[in-house]
């Protein structure tokens, strides 16, 4: 299932760079989820973001998993991931830390992409959550290896787009986007709507 909001035009790359996008993510996330973040030992919104990755670290990651999506590399140059929560931001993302090629059982999590050849299956990248969470798994296939023009639901991929998706055993299927950045932009818009409505996660307790 693709995320309902689809492409976030108001936060398109030509309008909003990664620095602004991540700062807005952290600022809104801190307002919405401050209590849980403080319990994790964070003192301010800036603590949600990790330090930037170095070019050497990017090269080492690509030597391990193959060519990374350009938008993902641009993000880790600004912040090598961000913290989430048990469900909040689906655990966040650890950036290049613990990045690996997915295990052989990844075929259980790729059915929605249609028929993939073995070479494509072997290039699925597994990302790790940044925070202890409720079993969220993060995957992506770099556009360098993604060849399918559409997935099994008939959703088409434009040039440069690629599947990024999340899966948890307790959920009914996966949630997917057409890039890692699209997921982050979706989260920013949702969080900023909550801030505008003066809602926090404590309101749901």
The gyration radius over C-alpha positions equals 16 Å
* Number of DSSP-assigned strands: 7
Distance N to C terminus: 28 Å
Biggest sheet record: 5 strands, antiparallel
Give the DSSP E fraction (strand runs of 2 or more residues): 5-15%
Helix percentage range: 25-40%
Question: What is the string of helix and strand elements?
Answer: HHHEEEHEEEEH
Strand order of the largest sheet: 3-4-5-6-7
Characterize the overall form: globular
What's the helix count? 5
Q: Mean pLDDT, as a whole number?
A: 90
Assembly annotation: single chain
Structural class: alpha+beta
Residue stretches low in confidence (pLDDT < 50, at least 5 long) are: 1-5
Organism: Fusarium musae
Domain Knr4/Smi1-like: 52-186
Protein name: Knr4/Smi1-like domain-containing protein
Task: State the main characteristics.
alpha+beta, 205 residues, Knr4/Smi1-like domain-containing protein
């Amino acid at each position: 299932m693709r995320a309902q909001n689809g492409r976030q035009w108001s936060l398109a790359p030509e309008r909003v760079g990664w620095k602004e996008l991540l700062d807005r993510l952290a600022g809104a996330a801190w307002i919405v989820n401050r209590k849980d973040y403080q319990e994790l030992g964070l003192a301010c919104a800036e603590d949600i973001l990790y330090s930037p990755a170095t070019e050497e670290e990017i090269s080492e990651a690509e030597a391990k998993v193959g060519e990374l999506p350009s938008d993902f590399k641009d993000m880790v140059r600004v912040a090598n991931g961000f913290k989430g929560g048990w469900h909040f931001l689906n655990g966040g993302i650890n950036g290049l830390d613990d990045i690996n090629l997915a295990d052989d059982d990844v075929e259980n999590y790729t059915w929605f992409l249609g028929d993939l050849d073995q070479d494509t299956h072997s290039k699925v990248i597994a990302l790790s959550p940044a925070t202890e969470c409720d079993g969220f798994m993060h995957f992506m296939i770099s556009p360098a290896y993604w060849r399918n023009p559409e997935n099994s639901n008939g959703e088409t991929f434009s040039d440069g787009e690629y599947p990024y998706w999340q899966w948890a055993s307790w959920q009914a299927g996966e949630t997917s986007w057409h890039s890692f950045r699209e997921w982050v932009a979706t989260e920013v818009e949702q969080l900023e709507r909550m801030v505008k409505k003066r809602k926090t996660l404590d309101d749901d307790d």
